[in-house]
Amino acid sequence: MSSATTSRTRFDVRYRTIDLVTITTLGVAFGVVFWGWGKLYAAAGTAGMLAYPPSGAFFGGGWLIAGVVIGLIVRKPGAALAGELVAAIVSALLPGNEWGSSVLVSGLLQGLGVELVLAALLYRRFGVAVAAAGGALAAVLEAVYEWSAYYSDWGWAYKLAHLGIFVASGIVVAGIGGFLLVRGLARAGALDAFAAGREQVTEV
Question: pTM for this one?
């Protein structure tokens, strides 16, 4: 089976109203999920599950999924970046956000990682391998940012372990998980207004 989905429609950079509504709606929904994911991360740390500091990157993929999902659905330049930014803004505004406004920088970098992968392919391929690559690059950008923002005292052994775990989480959780989520929504008929909903996706 092929692991790539290629859009059969002519590439169109013009945004429809439904594209903007979908980016906003999914961005808000993922923002709430991100906030809850942060609480789970904090609880894991409190429980001592993160005794090895770089292991916190296992949770990283959960914060990258918005860009992947929205990019795979809307398939327009800037959609993945905008979706991840909306999610970051919402999570920052909810009470109890542990990281303050720094989540906006994270949202920018995470969305940019997915956006760069889609742009390199001219927004024409949207299969599981593309989703995984987007999750991986988003993880790389976020991990490097976190080294300076949160973990400046780490040595290279910790940094490289953190990067490897983050990329793996980005591939599995955000990439493959995001792809499967989009495919499930498409099969349920929720994406009929998009190319992602009209395609017969059979991979994986």
Answer: 0.89
In whole angstroms, give the CA distance from residue 167 to residue 193.
Answer: 32
Residue 204: pLDDT band by 50, 70, 90 thresholds? very low
Single out the residue of 130, 13, 34, 10 nearest to residue 78, CA to CA: 13
Please give, one letter per residue, the 3-state secondary structure of 117-186.
HHHHCCCCECCHHHHHHHHHHHHHHHHHHHHHHCCCCCCHHHHHHHHHHHHHHHHHHHHHHHHHHHHHHH
The answer to whether position 182 is within a domain reads yes
Domain span at residue 127? 17-198
Q: Which of 20, 22, 199, 187 has the alpha carbon at shortest distance from 127?
A: 199
Establish if 140 belongs to a structural domain: yes
3-state secondary structure of 204: coil
